Amino acid sequence: MYSDKVMDHFANPRNVGDISDADGVGMVGNASCGDIMKLYIKIEDDKIVDAKFRTFGCGAAIATSSMVTELVIGKTVEEAMSISKETVAEALDGLPPVKMHCSNLAADALMAAIDEYECKKAGHCPSVRNRIDDHDHHHHHAHDEDEDE
After folding, report:
1. Which CATH number applies to 4-148?
2. Catalytic one of 33, 58, 119, 125
């Protein structure tokens, strides 16, 4: 039913864990199957230098998470954005149709992590509750002092 690659990534998942100073974190879940996936990415010079995941789910969900981290490390952010559920499934030599939603989760978690990175870079992340960007605060003070002189 599963390819050797799926079994390998399930039995020996790559890049399990989290990144404490991640540049982007994406968390997605599928209510119908109970899978939850959290993906962390570290970015330097627009390249993804590290990716880690924590997944609560079936073997296919773990395998697709593991494969996504392998696919993105070393890629630019733009290249990573082209990774789709099909890319993930192909990299694993195919998934049973009933498990395709699992590869969707992995691709969605990656996109969510990239979205967070992009909005942090832009300096405003309305959807990210745990990160408070105070650059604007410092900027205004510097600006006010310039005007006073």
Report:
1. 3.90.1010.10
2. 33
